[in-house]
């Protein structure tokens, strides 16, 4: 009877999960269709009205977009130097090349505008080359990450990426330069600039690939980085840019200006996403620099820094603080009987107890090997002794094998020292006395603390 109830419960939960997943899928599809409808509504509205942009507004957007390209290219090079992320390296060259092409096109466009020789129906060749090249490099970055094995030497990575970028730039430029005629907008057709559908399709493919990569990360129960989300949004915005440009009858009309806005905003998203993700990486590096990799507690460097800060604060406020040294009992025996993995697990267990049974203002740290430390602000020896008693009792109550115990030594400011070295030395002497005076006696710890 119980087995049937469990089966029915499992089926019911599975049905609920499937219905929730179907509901999310329907909401995503409905949201996508709504966005597409709004996009085409905005395009056709701007196309039918007299909404248009001035040449100066276009030039300002071009200059701003070009500067954003260069800023992101520099940021991506910094990211590659620190993480060897090949996607970032490819995109750094891609955005730099796109910026250079757009800069050259800007000067030619400005000269034609000043000379009065600008043909509004002519599609700028620099636009097509730079935009298509960037789309190709987005797809190339995805292909390199998936199919090209990681090299052990960064120089080989850089050489391979340069080869991919050079090949993409050559093929893209050659394709447009070898075209029989320059692209010209036909105002009579609904799709006035069908050439823009090529980069639009490439950006859509890139957006789908980045969306799939984000989904794969979620399926692996790991969170996708802001960089991946930024790439997905950038590819989507650039697809919107070229879909809008495909309906542009001439330069500076409504769809053309909407395309320029989408393109420039995609650069803003790209740079902002890269900066935010880089800040996250810097925070991870900072955390790793002050954390013990096994237990996650503060490391020796962080411990000394906290002790120095507490000494400065206590000198100003004339209030005491304590530091406790813990030594794990019998780590060598555990390693010999159970293996080193169990020994490492024992250290993690002690670190977890220290973390869970400390105040928010306390700092548990791994002092080294099988020794731990605990800094207790605003606490004298009596409070520190009670903390040690609680931690030892918590370890004794654990049911996981092997059983664990610790010896402890307490030192307090100012009576036991006024430097980190003196305080740690005093706590180490108290720890030695406890280990040789009966490690299972809590009363002995109190007696030692009272004598020091």
Short description:
The protein has about 450 residues and is α+β, with helices and mostly antiparallel strands. The protein has 14 helices and four strands. A four-stranded antiparallel sheet has the order 2-3-1-4, with helices on both faces.
Characterize the structure shown.
The protein has two domains: 240 residues, Rhopdopsin 7-helix transmembrane proteins (Up-down Bundle), CATH 1.20.1070; 152 residues, Reverse transcriptase/Diguanylate cyclase domain (Alpha-Beta Plaits). Helix 2 packs antiparallel against helix 3, helix 3 packs parallel to helix 5 and helix 4 runs parallel beside helix 6. The chain is of the alpha+beta class and 452 residues long. Strands 2-3-1-4 form a four-stranded antiparallel sheet, sandwiched between helices. The longest helix has 47 residues. The C terminus is likely disordered. The protein is elongated and about 95 Å long. The relative contact order is 0.07.
């Amino acid at each position: 009877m119980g087995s049937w109830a469990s089966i029915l419960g499992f089926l019911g939960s599975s049905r609920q999960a499937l219905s929730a997943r179907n509901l999310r899928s329907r909401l995503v599809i409905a949201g996508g269709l709504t966005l597409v409808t709004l996009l085409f509504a905005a395009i056709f509205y701007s196309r039918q009205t007299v909404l248009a942009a001035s040449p100066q507004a276009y030039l300002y957007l071009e200059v701003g977009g070009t500067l954003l390209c260069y800023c992101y290219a520099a940021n991506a090079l910094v990211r590659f130097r620190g993480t060897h992320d090949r996607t970032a390296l490819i995109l750094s060259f891609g955005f730099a090349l796109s910026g250079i092409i757009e800069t050259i096109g800007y000067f030619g466009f400005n000269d034609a505008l000043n000379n009065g020789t600008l043909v509004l129906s002519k599609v700028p060749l620099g636009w097509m080359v730079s935009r298509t090249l960037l789309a190709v490099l987005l797809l190339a970055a995805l292909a390199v990450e998936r199919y090209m094995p990681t090299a052990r030497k960064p120089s080989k990575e850089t050489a391979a990426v340069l080869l991919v970028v050079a090949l993409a730039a050559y093929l893209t430029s050659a394709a447009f330069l070898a075209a029989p005629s320059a692209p010209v907008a036909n105002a009579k057709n609904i799709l006035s600039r069908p050439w823009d559908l090529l980069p639009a399709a490439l950006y859509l493919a890139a957006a789908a690939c980045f969306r799939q990569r984000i989904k794969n990360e979620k399926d692996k129960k790991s969170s996708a980085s802001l960089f991946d989300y930024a790439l997905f949004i950038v590819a989507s915005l650039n697809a919107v840019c070229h879909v809008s440009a495909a309906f542009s009858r001439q330069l500076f009309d409504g769809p053309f200006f909407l395309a320029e806005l989408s393109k420039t905003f995609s650069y803003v998203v790209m740079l902002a996403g890269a900066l935010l993700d880089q800040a996250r990486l810097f925070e991870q590096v900072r955390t790793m620099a002050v954390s013990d990799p096994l237990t996650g507690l503060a490391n020796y460097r962080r411990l000394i820094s906290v002790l120095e800060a507490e000494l400065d604060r206590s000198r100003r406020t004339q209030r005491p603080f304590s530091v406790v040294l813990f030594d794990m009992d019998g780590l060598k025996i555990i390693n010999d009987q159970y293996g080193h993995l169990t020994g490492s697990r024992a250290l993690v267990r002690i670190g977890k107890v220290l973390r869970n049974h400390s105040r928010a203002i306390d700092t548990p740290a791994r002092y080294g090997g099988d020794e731990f430390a605990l800094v207790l602000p605003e606490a004298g020896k009596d409070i520190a002794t009670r903390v040690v008693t609680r931690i030892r009792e918590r370890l004794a109550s654990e049911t996981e094998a092997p059983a664990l115990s610790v010896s402890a030594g307490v030192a307090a400011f100012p009576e036991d020292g006024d430097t980190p070295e003196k305080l740690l030395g005093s706590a180490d002497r108290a720890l030695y006395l406890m280990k040789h005076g009966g490690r299972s006696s809590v009363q002995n710890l109190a007696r030692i603390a009272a004598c020091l």
